[in-house]
Design goal:
Structural class: alpha+beta
Number of helices: 14
Low-confidence stretches: 44-48
Strand content: 15-25%
Mean pLDDT: 93
Number of domains: 2
Distance between the termini: 32 Å
CATH class of the largest domain: Alpha Beta
CATH topology of the largest domain: Creatine Kinase, Chain A, domain 2
C-alpha cells in the first residue's frame, strides 16, 4: 500500500554581486547567508559556530539502480561551505556557486507552497541584511529562476518519499510520462532557446526554463548530462522502508498555483505507482526529444511519438493521468496522497487543464509561463521589438527578481494560496505535522546544547561523557501532536533526552 507522501523543495537561487569588478558567486552566497544568520540569530555550520550541519548521512553517490555507470559523477559534498540550520526546520546553505534553501519536510502540497513562499521571504530578508553590511555601491541580488541566459542552469528540486519496495523501473516509466507533460502548467516560461544551433526565430518563447538542459533519460548527475529521472538513492529516512525520489526536472515557480500543482499532482501519481493503480503504461519513443518538444510548443497541440507507434499531445496525456488519479482517490481516499489537500489538487488540476484546452491565456493569474508571455508580448508589440531583443531577455530575468520593488512577477496579479501572515510565520516556525517540528523546536529551545543537525538526526552535548544522537528516521514522527507536551515538560535538553529515553 502507498505510504503518505512527505515532500520538500530545494531552490538554488540565481545570484549577482553588483558594484564589484570580479564578483565571485561563492563568496557572495557566503556573505548573504552569513548576514541573514547574524541578523536573525539562526544556527550556522562553519565559521566557528557551535552548531554544524551533520554530513554523516550524506551519500549522494548511491544509485537507485544498484550501480553507478562508468563515467557518472555524483555531486561533491562541500563540507567547508556555509550551512545554516533554521528554526523552521529548513537548511540554508551554499551549494556550489549558489545559495540554496531546502524547505522543511511537508505533509501536503499546500504546506509545500507555504514553506516555498517562506523561503522567498528568507531570501528577501537576506538581501536586506546584506545591504546593511556591504560598502556603498555594492548590492547582492537574488533571482528565483533557472537560467542566466548564458548557458548556465541551476535547479529547483523536489523530493518525495516513496515505498522502498516499489520497483524503481516503474517509477522511471510513469514519472517520465508525467514530467515530460506536466510542463504545460509547471513551466516558468523563457525567452528563446539555449539548445546549440536553435535560433530565436525557431523558439521565440517556450514554456519552461529547464527543458533545454536535459540530455539523458535516467542518470545520477545533476549538473552535467542532466537526466529526466535522477537516480540518487539518499532517503534521509529509514532506508529499509523508504526511497526519496529526487526530482531535478522542474522549474522554480513564482506562481503559488504552479507550485501547488507541481508537487500535488506528482505526490498523487506516486501513490498510484506504489499501488500499481495506473491503467496502462504510457511511454515516449524519445523522452529527451519529447521534453523539449513540449516546452517549445505554445499551441499545446503538437503530437508526440509514443513507444507503441501512436501519437498523443501533452494535454491528452495529462487528462488521462488526471482521470486515473481522480478514480484512485475516489476509491481509496486521500490518506496517502496529502489528505484533504489532495481533493483541492485534483479540482485545480481539472480546472487548469480545461482552460489550457480552450484558451491558455485565461490562466495569466495562475501559471507563470502564461503570465510572463502576456507581459512580454504586450511590451514587445507596444515597442515593435523582435523576440531576440535583449530587453525582453532582461525582462524575463526581472520577472524572477526577489526584490519586491523590482519583481515583475509581483506586478502581474498572480493568485496566492497562502496568506502573507501564514507564510511569514513559516520563516521561523516549522510545520507541525512532520519531524521538522522536533528539529525546529529543539533549535529554538536548546540552542546551546545542540552540536549538529541534519534531516534524520540531531546531536546533543548535555555535558555527559559522550554526545547524544537522537535519530529521526520516521518523517511523520516528532510532530506537534507527538512532542508538544514533552517539550512543555522539559526545561532543558537533558530533561528532554531523559524523557525520550523513557
Amino acid at each position: 500500500m502507498a505510504i503518505p507522501k512527505t515532500i520538500g523543495i530545494e531552490t538554488e537561487f540565481g545570484i549577482t554581486h553588483r558594484g564589484v569588478d570580479d564578483p565571485d558567486p561563492i563568496t557572495a552566497s557566503s556573505i548573504l547567508i552569513g548576514a541573514y544568520v547574524a541578523a536573525t540569530h539562526q544556527y550556522v555550520a562553519g565559521g566557528g559556530s557551535p552548531v554544524s550541519w551533520d554530513f554523516i548521512d550524506e551519500t549522494p553517490g548511491l544509485d537507485a539502480r544498484g550501480y553507478a555507470p562508468t563515467g557518472s559523477m555524483a555531486p561533491v559534498v562541500e563540507t567547508h561551505l556555509v550551512n545554516a540550520v533554521l528554526t523552521n526546520g529548513a537548511r540554508y546553505y551554499v551549494d556550489h556557486a549558489h545559495p540554496e534553501l531546502s524547505t522543511p519536510e511537508c505533509a501536503d502540497a499546500l504546506s509545500g507552497v507555504r514553506f516555498d513562499r517562506a523561503a522567498e521571504i528568507i531570501a528577501q530578508r537576506s538581501m536586506e541584511a546584506t545591504s546593511a553590511i556591504l560598502p556603498p555601491g555594492e548590492e547582492i541580488v537574488l533571482y528565483k529562476n533557472n537560467s542566466d541566459g548564458k548557458g548556465n542552469s541551476y535547479g529547483c528540486h523536489e523530493n518525495y518519499l516513496v515505498d522502498r519496495s516499489t520497483p524503481f523501473g516503474e517509477i522511471v516509466t510513469h514519472c517520465t510520462t508525467h514530467f515530460v507533460t506536466r510542463q504545460i502548467y509547471t513551466g516558468a516560461g523563457k525567452v528563446g532557446s539555449e539548445v546549440a544551433g536553435v535560433p530565436a526565430s525557431e523558439v521565440p518563447f517556450q514554456l519552461t526554463q529547464r527543458a533545454d538542459f536535459f540530455e539523458e533519460e535516467v542518470g545520477l548527475e545533476t549538473t552535467l548530462k542532466r537526466p529526466i529521472i535522477n537516480t540518487r538513492d539518499e532517503p534521509h529516512a529509514d532506508a529499509r522502508k523508504y526511497r526519496r525520489l529526487h526530482v531535478i526536472v522542474g522549474d522554480a515557480n513564482m506562481s503559488e498555483v504552479a507550485t501547488f500543482l507541481k508537487v500535488g499532482t506528482t505526490a498523487i501519481l506516486l501513490a498510484l505507482i506504489e499501488d500499481k493503480a495506473l491503467p496502462r503504461r504510457i511511454e515516449f519513443a524519445s523522452p529527451v526529444a519529447a521534453i523539449r518538444q513540449v516546452s517549445a510548443d505554445m499551441s499545446l497541440a503538437r503530437t508526440l511519438e509514443m513507444a507503441d507507434g501512436t501519437t498523443a499531445t501533452a494535454l491528452d496525456i495529462q487528462w488521462e493521468l488526471l482521470e486515473a488519479c481522480s478514480n484512485y482517490v475516489a476509491q481509496r481516499g486521500t490518506d496517502n496522497t496529502g489528505g484533504p489537500t489532495a481533493e483541492a489538487v485534483l479540482q485545480r488540476w481539472e480546472q487548469v487543464l480545461t482552460s489550457l484546452s480552450s484558451d491558455p491565456m485565461t490562466l495569466s493569474t495562475q501559471l507563470d509561463w502564461v503570465a510572463k508571455y502576456r507581459l512580454l508580448e504586450g511590451y514587445r508589440e507596444r515597442h515593435g521589438l523582435g523576440w531576440d531583443h535583449p530587453r525582453l531577455r532582461a525582462m524575463d530575468i526581472q520577472y524572477h527578481d526577489l526584490r519586491p520593488s523590482k519583481s515583475l512577477a509581483a506586478r502581474v496579479g498572480l493568485e496566492t494560496l497562502v496568506g502573507i501572515d501564514e507564510a511569514t510565520a513559516g520563516v521561523t516556525d516549522p510545520p507541525s505535522d512532520t519531524r521538522a517540528y522536533f528539529r525546529g523546536e529543539c533549535l529554538k529551545r536548546y540552542r546551546a546544547d545542540i552540536v549538529a543537525a541534519n534531516w534524520d538526526s540531531m546531536v546533543f552535548d548535555i555535558g555527559a561523557d559522550a554526545l547524544r544522537r537522537v535519530p529521526m528516521m520516521e518523517p511523520l514522527r516528532g510532530t506537534r501532536e507527538h512532542m508538544a507536551r514533552l517539550f512543555d515538560e522539559s526545561d532543558s535538553a537533558a530533561d528532554l533526552l531523559r524523557r525520550l529515553g523513557k
